[in-house]
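Technical note accompanying the year-one report. For the benefit of new consortium partners, we illustrate the data format agreed upon in the data management plan: each record pairs a sequence with a structure-token string. No post-processing was applied to the example shown here.
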Amino acid sequence: MASFVPSAVSGHYPGWRGRFPSSHKRRSEPECSVKELIRMNPLHLFFLGFVPPFLGAIGSIVTALLLHNDEISNYNWQCGRARLPSLSRIINLPMERIFWQITFLFHIPLRAVEIAVGFFRYGRLRSVNCNWPRLYSLCRHFYLWLGSLELIFLIALSVVGEREFISYHVIFFYAFGAFAIGFFLTNVICHSQSLYYLNPYGRISYHFKIVVTILYVISVPVLFGAFVLYWRKCITIMYDVFAVAEYIDVFLTIAYHCCAFFDIRYKVIFSWCKFKRGGLFEMFFVEEKREKLRIQKKRTKLADIFLHSSSDDYYALRLLYNLPVGFGIALLIYHLAWYRINFADSILINPFWKDFVKWLMIVSSALSYTLNPLVRASLGCALFASLGSTGQGLLSVFVVENLNKGPIENIIQNFNISTMITVCHLQLQARITKSRMELQAGPIEALFEKNFGKVTTIGNKVVHTLKSLLQPFDDDVEEDSEEDSHLAAIIDTAQKIADRQLLTEGEDPSVGTMDRAAKPAWKRLKSQLGRAIVRRFERRCKYIFASSVESCHKRLQQSQSLCYDAIPWPLDSFACSRINALSLCQAKKVGEMSVKFCELGKSTDSGKEEHEMLFTPELDGQMYGLQNVSKQIERQLQLNLHFQAVEQPEIERGYSTSQLHNELEHDVKILQVFLGSFSLVLDFVVVLLTYLLFKNCVQTTLCYLNDIEFQNFFTTPYFWRIDSKRNEMGKVFLGKLRKPEKKHNKVISPYGLPHSEERKKMVSSSVRLSVLVFVVIIVIVVDHFFFKMLQIVVIHGKTIRSQQGGASLNIVVNGSGAVAELLRKVLQFEYAENITKHLDNLHCLSQPSAPNWTFNTWYLMVPLPVMFLLQVFLNFIVQRFVLFFVLGLMFPRRAKARIIHLYNKMLFGRVNSDKLSAAKKNENEGQMSKDGTD
């Protein structure tokens, strides 16, 4: 960077270290005087802002570890002991908290100066080779807002400690981290596309910022994940990871802001100046560069401020009155559309955050409107353009929402009432039919209802009595049971023990010692049931002997085992071998006794005849009869008449009407869910259309400012005033425009009829509006006639039924004895009754919901003609109003430049056309004179 040479004319002297020119020591102007008092070294300011928070962080941690180690380390948290303290716990201690707050809050004003200087210098130092000018401008403003929010939440988490409001402290901590990441990213983007990227130190600072940002972004999910794993999964080591990540994040934040050392060194001068102004009136209402022109043009102060001055004139006054105007506009837009994107408006989120997001959006929009003329122009354009065809979609959605809230909801409500009337009428018809059946049945139904219950009760008692008598013999009359398997297993075990005894004695177990009958008693029976019963009796007899053998064998084995455990070797072999289960239990002898007494076909038994007489061949039929007697009794005494004749039809009728009611109610709920989803879709459409409306207005404003040919074909009064001035000055002027000029340049009067493009927009708007009007009319007509139909049904659908009848019956049973007593209890009956029933459906006939004609008029019928008037018939007037009054008053210099450009273009075309016409005329005259000479 070249140094400056002193000059008596310019008054410039070499700047600091020869890099910048010095500022004027004293400058006087009519509105203010400025005097430089102190010039400060930028590096001194940097170290003044960097050293205190760095020492505060280091000092707080070291002091806590040295003096209060027991209070912050190895403490028992919810999920176990945490060895390392978190930074929040450190600054929660009284001494460390004071040290932290003093040092960190001390550097906040310097950080605010850094952000403000960076914002304005990024605006002035944008590189001419900037690849993304719009992104750069957006990031520049985000740099300001995100940096300010980072400071706000840094103050909040420093002041609101863990011991006061732990939940708010955690929220402030993560909000600070999120805004810090956004600030880092926007700063890097602006740095790369500005003159800050140049040497000296520009690229070093840029690469250092990238490295720190990447490390910070990597550490944030580690920090958050460790916190969640500790509190949700109780992984103890995760709290130590969280604490280490928190330390790293703090020092990465400090390291990132250290880059200001490279950004301001040799590039920024800080001076403390004294401003002396003439007063508040001069500060707000005096603009020196406008005063001379205002006096020359003989304009009033208000006319110059509001009609002729540009957006950068009277800056303080514009800030003063644009702030409340912008706040009102932002509040209006929020309640019209932006409330739909308030993600914190949920029952699952604290209401504080709903209000926080709401006012954050409103205040941000108000400040943007106040500070940025492009935002002011776009918002003003959006407010008025929404009345024209540009906002037709938004207003159409507004009408559809009101259609949903009014007639459609009323139709659904009336449909629900109609379903209730239908179901209630069906239930009434069912009750009428049932009442008729009761009248026709007379005493018969009462007889059945009274006495068949008694019959059922008596029959059940008889069945239960007989079954209780036969229940003990049920298992004995079964062909195969679990008892047979159990008895056979015990008998087989005893037989195996006897066989082992024979083997030890040297005998053959296959040779029996007892005579057996040639044909056992159970084989003399023919049926399987009889044989099973006889064999079961034999097994039960043998079980008595076999169980004694098995029990003896187990006891002696246990005794022998205890003997071996108690007597030492070698005496145990001599003493315990005597306890032999096979020899002592005498399984062989017991088996012979069981065969002798239990097998009923033994030929030598003296009781043979008795046994054979006990199991005679008639046993088969007797056992089958005993087996089937309980089933026959239960089947013979069953009574199903009452259930089949009366109860079952009642259940079927009730099921049919309730099913119909449930299905209709289900359909209504589905329709309500569909309309609820449709409302959410409309919310999304409103947000989308609002975004498109603002996008269109921003593009229109940018085209108005950057493209001088954009819709520049209107001959405004200023156009003709220029022409009149040129005429008075004796210069070339246009006068009345010729038809070829109008056709070629497509110029029209701003007060004239719409041109072709405007007519096309009118046609397309009318088509869209016609569809909307047709839908609205159809829905309103359906709502009205549906209400009228239900009203007629309620008036003429009243049903009142009165039924009367009487019947008598007297049955007397005479006689004595059990049968007579039973019949007397069953049949004796005396009945005399007169039945009178009144049935109606008056409780079902709810009054239908009438259409809300006030709502339909103000929110449906009035907006449609207004939309037709503004968006179709007068759409071109709305567009011209935005072009001439909104944008023209916002940017008066640009409006004049556009008119001057149009006038010069027309005048240049007129002059060229006149010259061409004169040349052609001279050529024709020369040709005619030449022809006359010839």
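Partners are asked to follow this layout when depositing records. The first helix runs from residue 42 to 67.
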